[in-house]
Amino acid sequence: MRAEVEWVDARERLPRDGMPVAAATSGRYPSNDADERDPDAGQDFWLVMPMYFTTHHIAEDGREYRDCFVDSDRIVRLPYGRSRAPF
Q1: How does DSSP assign 50-85, residue by residue?
Q2: What are the boundaries of the region Disordered (predicted)?
Q3: Helical (H) or strand (E) element with 24
Q4: Is the pLDDT score of 76 beyond 70?
């Protein structure tokens, strides 16, 4: 099997419509200390998830999205810095 891999920074340009991607997303696990008030407490994590890019997606609830990534659970993820509002 031959595959071509290209790094695309969504802040600079977006992939072609229908392209499968491995998208990196980050988050923070909560602190184990229930009394912790520090918002930076806890542990950062990164996940790489298989998704595809599409220029137009209609979610199960009927909302329309433009230029978004869709994961295997049909969760819509917008490129970094893009508005969260559907169209």
Answers
A1: EEEEEEEEE-TTS-EEEEEEEETT--EEPPTT----
A2: 18-37
A3: strand 20-29
A4: yes
CA distance 43 to 54: 32
Q: How many CA atoms lie within 13 A of 20 on its CB side?
A: 6
- Number of other CB atoms surrounding residue 56 within 10 Å: 11
For the entire predicted model, the pTM comes to 0.70
pLDDT digit string (tens) for 8-61? 788 899 999 999 999 888 888 887 765 566 767 788 888 899 999 999 999 999
Length of the chain: 87
Residue 69 CB: number of other CB atoms within 10 A? 23
Report the distance separating Cα 43 and Cα 28, nearest Å.
Answer: 5
